[in-house]
Amino acid sequence: MAVVRSWWPLPAIVALAVVIQTFVLRDYEARGHAADHLSSAHVLIASTAWVASLVAVSIGNLRVVDAIGGADWTDEQADALGAGLPGFESGHSLAQTSAYVAVMVAIALTVVMRVRGHIGTGLAIGAIVTSVVFPYWIIPGAGVVIVTIALCVARHRRFAGARL
To answer: CB–CB of 16/51 below 8 Å?
Structure first.
């Protein structure tokens, strides 16, 4: 039961994103301007799921901080002394599991961006590889950052060219 209480946000986040996308957007067939709005809805749902998983990582990390309190432990000391503290194990577990979910959702977001035509295949592959290879404990799903930067650069170039 403790596992369910500490991990419930993860399946809830993924299930919510899938349910919203499946039921709310399934009957829409859009073209032109309306298709752009539908595409944005898909991207926003996937983005929200990624951000929600990052929030869950933060909650797990804060549980560990609360468990340790003001102690200045090394990693070895934390492993030896922290196991009995309330919130220490569950915080680590939530942070790690949420980070894995964030990587999976980042990959899904990248695929949605590619399928919707917002990014090219090369960028999508690079973002997925980055999400998998970049350490999940630093930036879970770091490929999303790559996609964001690329989209901002492309938008800037497009607007700079329009001004000329």
So the answer is: no
